[in-house]
Design a protein that fits this description.
By secondary structure, the protein is an alpha/beta fold. The protein has a single domain, classed as Aldolase class I (TIM Barrel, Alpha-Beta Barrel). About 45% of the residues lie in helices and about 10% in strands. The chain has an eight-stranded parallel beta sheet, sandwiched between helices. Strand 1, helix 2 and strand 2 form a beta-alpha-beta unit. About 45% of the residues are buried.
């Protein structure tokens, strides 16, 4: 089996809308819970998004075994409804990431989100060679996550676009406005740009002003109606609605998220538990919220759900 759509169609479909990054479900003993994961995908699929990104950062890609990764991808492809996109994560070293991209294509995924390489820092030439090899390993579209130790310059991204026809997107998690605008200036609409900042909603207005309406939403996992309503408010430039949600939820939520490294995932897992759709605890090396933080988050979620 191969991806149903080509890279150009993938790029077009990702050019607007909210992106869903489902959590990966673990049971009480910390093992992968395939039934829970399938139920989560089915529940989230009832809401309108541009696509589901499977086993990404929020899905704890870094903690999954290869067999667990295969299971999440297989379940997501089987659960796919209509023309909803299924995009697989890939990462680690170049050879492993290439193998995972090949597996994503053979499983029927529509594209690959390439996460930063494991551990080591790299030069721009090294990042170019890394991404080039992965793009050449598969025919489906590749989206590069520009974050952490995969921080591309505009020149490197332009060079990759020239050499990789299936490089279709850049998800930006750096927030370097000047370099981002250089990328936009050099590449125009050659690739689709995605706001991938932690709690992307906080930065949604800024990215929208730079011509980037698409963003990944972690809070969609536990308050999907509110996440979609906020997206609509940003698209309509409804400043009072944006300011209210920012004040009542997003900024205090971000304050909790910032208390410990790795809480960007932990706080989402706590959120789905509060919403009655637990995905279990995070796996080490992440840590769960404290009881006090959990209570603070519950108060925030209760405020926007009622």
């Amino acid at each position: 089996m191969a991806g149903r759509i080509g890279p150009d169609e993938l790029k077009q479909k990702l050019s607007s809308g909210l992106l869903s990054f489902p959590l990966t479900d673990f049971d009480q003993s910390g093992e992968f819970d395939p039934r829970g994961f399938r139920a989560r995908l089915d529940w989230l699929a009832q809401y309108p998004t541009s696509g589901q990104f499977i086993a990404g950062g929020a899905g704890e890609f870094f903690s999954l075994s290869q067999e667990e990764f295969r299971q999440t991808l297989r379940i997501a492809v089987e659960a796919r409804q209509g023309d909803r996109l299924v995009i697989s994560a890939s990462g680690y070293g170049t050879r492993t990431a290439s193998d995972l991209a090949v597996e994503a294509e053979s499983s029927g995924a529509d594209g690959v989100l390439l996460l930063p390489p494991y551990l080591t820092e790299a030069s721009q030439q090294g990042l170019f060679d890394h991404i080039l090899a992965i793009c050449r390993s598969t025919r489906i579209g590749i989206i590069v996550y520009n974050r952490a130790n995969c921080r591309l310059t505009a020149e490197t991204l332009a060079k990759l676009a020239e050499n990789c026809p299936n490089l279709v997107g850049l998800k930006d998690g750096q927030g370097d406005t000047e370099e981002f605008l250089r990328m936009r200036g050099k590449l125009g609409d050659r690739v689709v740009f995605i706001n991938g900042m932690p709690t992307a909603e906080i930065h949604a207005q800024s990215y929208y002003g730079m011509g980037v309406p698409t963003y990944s939403s972690a809070i969609f996992n536990f308050i999907p109606e509110a996440a979609l309503a906020f997206y609509d408010a940003v698209m309509r430039r409804d400043v009072p609605a944006i300011d209210a949600f920012m004040r009542d939820f997003l900024l205090p939520y971000s304050k909790i998220r910032s208390r410990q490294p790795g809480y960007a995932v932990s706080i989402v897992k706590a959120g789905v538990t509060i919403a009655g759709r637990s995905a279990g605890k995070v796996r080490p090396p992440l840590s769960d919220l404290t009881e006090e933080e959990f209570a603070d988050l519950k108060a925030l979620i209760d405020r926007v759900r009622h």
